[in-house]
Every structure is written in C-alpha cells, then in structure tokens.
C-alpha cells in the first residue's frame, strides 16, 4: 500500500470476525457499496487462528476493491483481544485517520451509514457515536421474541445521549484511544461478553460525549438458534452477570462488596415491578421474564458463577465452499 494512500484515509472501519466467513463477506460487500466520497479503509481481524476461513473470505472480497485494507489474524482467542487488535492495527496503519468505526460480522451497513456516522461526529464534536441495529430474523418469530428487550435499541432522533452500549454500530474518535490507553477493552470480558459496555461506561466517567445517529442504520441477521426461549433466557441472565461485573469495577473499593449486594437486592425487588410492566405492555411472559432473569444473573455472578458463551468451544464452526482455501493468515491490499 502506498504511503500517500494511507495519508488520505479519514476513517477506518474495523471488523472482528470469528467463524462467520460468509457473514463477514456480506458485511464487507455492504461496506464496499458505501455512498459518498469519504476516504476510508477497512481492517478485518480473524480470531480463529486454527482455521482462518474468515480471513480467506475477507481477502477474496477485498481483492476486487481498491479501498485500502488489511486482514490480520489475532492468535489470542477472545472478543476483546480481537477488538483491541483491530483498533490498534487501524490506528497504526492509518495515522491520518481520526474516526474508527466498528461493525460486526453478522451485520449489513446501509448505503449511507459511514457518511452519517462521520458527519454526526464532525458536526457535533462527539467523540463516540452509535446508531440503530435493526434485527432481521433468519426464521419467522413470534412477538414474544421480536418484542424481547434484548432485541431493542436506543430509539428516537439524532441527539446527544448519556452513553451507547455496544460496538456493533459505533464510531470512536482517535482522542478516545489516546486518553483511555492502555486500558481499552478489558480482556477479562473476553468470553463473558460485555467488554464494550464496560469500555463505554469508563468513557462516560472520563467525560466523553456520546451521540446517537438515527440515520446510520445497520441490519443484523439473527440466527435461528438465537430466537429460542432457552437462548433468550440465558442471555438475560448473562446480561445481569455482565452488569454486576461492570458495577464491581466502577464502585469504590472499600465498600464494594456491601454496595454490590445491596444493589442486587434492590435490583431483584424492582425487577418484579418491571416484569409486571412488560407483561402488561407485551402480554407475553418471555419478554416479561427479562428483568427478573437479569437480577438472577447479578446474584449468581456474586457467587462467582459466570457464563462463557464466547469461548471457542461454545461456538459452532462454520464451513465455506470447499473451493475457498484458507490462504495466508495475513493479507494486505
């Protein structure tokens, strides 16, 4: 890649990928089809070092484009390792870029997504921007699933918000990394999940401004296995566990145990009323169970029981067409 090409890049889109080669190819295709004249680059981080089919799929897709890009393999397995590597590679390879965006490997960006995200950051001075992630289910689902709080998102017009919660549709200014380093995405959340929530909680404490961009839409494909009552209930419990761990990191050390236990009991009591409210609104038990299960997740986490859904052994490997070979583990365009 020529130095002058690197110097012209204004934004870098980062994609961590793990065992979704077809998904990451679709994600990349949506990025290559972005409207506007913003100069951007793409960094893909493959987190399956043993069988890097995602890297092969990414290289095959990017080879047909003149957009600056890099595909690398992160050998340390874990979501936060992959995210940290993606942002580090992006900042090092493209030193002139100020805006670093992230999209997941099961998501599709709308044609004006990048332009809207960067425009919002520029016009408002926001250091972190988020946008809506609209779920598209692989199979028809009942309203008890589509109305579940786990599939909701911040709604409403473009505006300043207290915080965003996920990296699935986000923009982070270079200034954020400069101030937050070396403590970026905490690898303690590698297999539990929630590293993005914890990072943004610290960014909020540090005083960074967050904005919500209504127009920067991303569509996420929800696999059939993520629409079952069992999966959703487990996810609700895990969300509570994540909240407990984040609270433990945020609270002052001396009284942390007592304060956490007090919050657990308060959360459990309030969850009953929240569940009743959800039941009245949705008339369905599954979404109404969410607040109570979150409280249960907090309590189980306080006893040291934490789920590890993002451990490699818990994630099914996905094969691609046999004609697509893994190729090099590291590729650059």
From TrEMBL:
Ribonucleoprotein keyword on record: no
Entries under SUPFAM superfamilies matching the protein: Nucleotide-diphospho-sugar transferases (SSF53448)
GO MF, one example: transferase activity
Keyword field: Transferase
InterPro entries: Glyco_trans_2-like, Glycosyltransf_2, Nucleotide-diphossugar_trans
Keyword Transferase found: yes
Residue span, Glycosyltransferase 2-like domain: 13-176
Designated name of the protein: GT2 family glycosyltransferase
Provenance organism: Rhizobium wenxiniae
């Amino acid at each position: 890649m020529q130095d002058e090409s690197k110097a012209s890049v204004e934004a870098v889109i980062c994609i961590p990928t793990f065992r979704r080669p077809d998904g990451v190819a679709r994600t990349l295709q949506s990025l290559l089809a972005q409207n506007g004249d913003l100069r951007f680059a793409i960094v893909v981080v493959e987190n399956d070092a043993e069988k890097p089919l995602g890297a092969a799929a990414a290289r095959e897709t990017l080879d047909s484009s003149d957009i600056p890009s890099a595909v690398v393999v992160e050998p340390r397995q874990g979501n936060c390792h992959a995210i940290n590597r993606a942002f580090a590679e992006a900042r090092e390879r493209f030193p002139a870029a100020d805006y670093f965006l992230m999209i997941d490997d099961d998501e599709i960006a709308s044609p004006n997504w990048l332009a809207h995200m960067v425009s919002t950051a520029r016009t408002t001075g926001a250091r972190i921007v988020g946008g809506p992630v609209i779920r598209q289910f692989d199979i028809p689902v009942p309203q008890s699933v589509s109305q579940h709080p786990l599939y909701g998102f911040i709604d409403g017009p473009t505006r300043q918000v207290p915080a965003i919660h996920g990296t699935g549709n986000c923009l982070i200014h270079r200034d954020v990394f400069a101030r937050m380093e070396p403590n970026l995405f905490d690898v303690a959340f590698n297999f539990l999940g929630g590293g993005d929530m914890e990072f943004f909680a610290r960014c909020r404490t540090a005083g960074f401004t967050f904005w919500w961009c209504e127009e920067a839409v991303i569509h996420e494909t929800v696999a059939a296995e993520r629409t079952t009552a069992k999966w959703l209930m487990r996810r609700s419990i895990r969300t509570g566990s994540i909240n407990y761990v984040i609270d433990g990191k945020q609270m002052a050390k001396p009284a942390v145990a007592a304060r956490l236990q007090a919050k657990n009991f308060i959360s459990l009591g309030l969850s009953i009323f929240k569940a009743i409210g959800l039941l009245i609104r949705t008339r369905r038990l599954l979404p109404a169970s969410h607040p109570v299960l979150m409280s249960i997740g907090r309590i189980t986490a306080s006893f040291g029981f934490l789920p590890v859904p993002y451990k490699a052994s818990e994630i099914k490997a996905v094969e691609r067409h046999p004609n697509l070979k893994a190729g090099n583990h590291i590729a650059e365009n």
